[in-house]
Amino acid sequence: MMSGNEVARVTFRAASNIVGHILDWFGKDVEFNNIQIDTVDVSVFVNEDAMRYWVLQFGQHIEVLQTNRFRKSIIDAVTEMYEKYN
To answer: What is the pTM of this model?
Structure first.
């Protein structure tokens, strides 16, 4: 997920049951924080374009927390999708 131009640190909250998928996609270069029974906060350095597609794939199981700019780009993408399907 590191190829491309815009590499940034993205933090998201994930359902605990997708931790295996997170490790498959991002490898060991992940930082886990705020570990709860049902959720965990994850920070990764990623290409933002690739991350956007990953977020849309796992969107029902995660919430982007940081950066605000990246979070806004996800909101915009989801809103556009909603308008197409509504």
So the answer is: 0.88
